[in-house]
Amino acid sequence: MTQDTISAISTPIGPGAIGVVRLSGPKAHEILSAIFVPKKKGPLRPFSLKLGNIVDPDTGDKLDEVLVSIMKAPYSYTREDMAEIQSHSGIGILSSILELTIRLGARPAQPGEFTYRAFLNGRLDLTQAEAVVDLVQTPSKKGQSMALNALMGKLSEKVDSVREKLLEALSILEALIEFPEEELGIDLSLTFLPLRDLIPEMEELIEAHRSRRIWFEGIYVVIAGRTNAGKSSLLNRLIESPRAIVTPLPGTTRDVLEVPYLLEGIPVKLVDTAGIGVPKDEAEEMGIKRAMESIEGADVIIYVVDQSVGVKEEDISVIRSHAQNTVVTLNKADLPSSISMENIEKMLPEGVPYAFVSALTGFGIGELKGKIKEKVLCLSGGMVDSNISPNLRQTVALKGALASLKGFLELIGRDTPLDILAEDLREAIRHLDEVLGRDLPEEILEKIFSSFCIGK
Ligand SMILES: Nc1nc2c(ncn2[C@@H]2O[C@H](COP(=O)(O)OP(=O)(O)O)[C@@H](O)[C@H]2O)c(=O)[nH]1
Ligand SMILES: [Mg+2]
Description:
The protein folds into three domains: 6-120, Probable tRNA modification gtpase trme, domain 1 (Gyrase A, domain 2), CATH 3.30.1360; 141-209 and 388-450, tRNA modification GTPase MnmE domain 2 (Four Helix Bundle (Hemerythrin (Met), subunit A)), CATH 1.20.120.430; 219-379, P-loop containing nucleotide triphosphate hydrolases (Rossmann fold), CATH 3.40.50. Helices cover 45% and strands 17% of the residues. It contains 17 helices and 13 strands. The chain has helices at 28-35, 91-103, 113-120, 126-137, 141-151, 154-178, 188-191, 198-208, 212-217, 231-239, 282-297, 313-321, 341-347, 365-379, 392-412, 418-436, 442-450; strands at 6-9, 16-24, 36-38, 50-55, 62-71, 82-89, 107-108, 219-225, 257-263, 266-272, 300-306, 326-331, 354-356. The site of magnesium ion has 4 residues, from helix 10.
């Protein structure tokens, strides 16, 4: 148990209805009692709210009207005594309540320290602690459910079940090392055959990591094309709000505009760019340069062509060099077409999806969204059907475990000394422990938790 009491503002700082200052540690209740004056007399009971005021005990100044609650160890998030003060949210109010708790003996919490304590006190393992970050950061429903699964211990369960099987195998090996005569007559390959089934199981988990970017971070979808093709109009149509400036004049968009957007449930960053082509002035030239950079950094490109004007060689050249991740939009479908369907198929590189749309009327937008979504899912591992997505740290450790397990299985049939085999198994188990955060050096743990927010 930690001896000091920590305090932090646990809600986002800014004007709002409610803000929370949270305390954890042996003096949490004592500090709260010193600054809280209840409206109605009576003791604070765990898990029930009490109305009153926060009052500076030295000056008698009232700071805010609040609701407070306490939790008693071990029945709390950190498994320590905790107190929560719900005040009005405002940087002034929250800071003065925080300062008061510190004057009375708490110390400001480090980033992620509440969760770190929950981990140290055995309430959460490391995958669960990391899931807390995912849960608050994911913009998507799918990410939310994945994070919640991890928080409920689903990832740990999977890892634990693999670990149990490896431990069992290790105990057999160790017995054989100790009593070598037993080895006679035992076919090791056969004994450890079931371990082979663990490989696809672990590979599936590792593969599921690929879908993290899409569900937890949001990927870049860049709208590109020649000037006046209708890129900005398309962005506005997709997000159903006039964010980008549209004019009949070529070269209206000069800067790169980035808008967070939920494309049929998938969080994307939608980027509008300046049209590629011959610039009229320096600002436009810069815009084109930035547009090209955005295209290179895009996960998916929506390449817009004005189909009433036609497809030009420079369009084809950009599309061809990004054929893997481009969806072509043949815009202004409300105007007469200058290209036939047949010609389009011939012109576009094979397999590049396209859709006729009108950013003006909304025609074809549904179909286009479907095609973009398909591309996004296909490229970002979103097709991986998993209810869990390990983060990078967990995936690296899982890969290490898999490599050791594969090494072990390869060496089995080759008269390898038993102690070498055992070492491979131990290595695999060590990697799995790393996933769960067991026996990790303090400095590594501190580094992991320091990426959390303050107050979490
Ligand atoms: N008829 C028609 N006009 C469009 C359509 N989309 C855009 N425009 C017009 O084309 C011009 C250029 O559009 P804009 O979105 O600024 O193109 P950008 O330069 O590619 O961003 C504007 O006058 C738009 O109103 C469309 O689907 N149909
Ligand atoms: Mg534009």
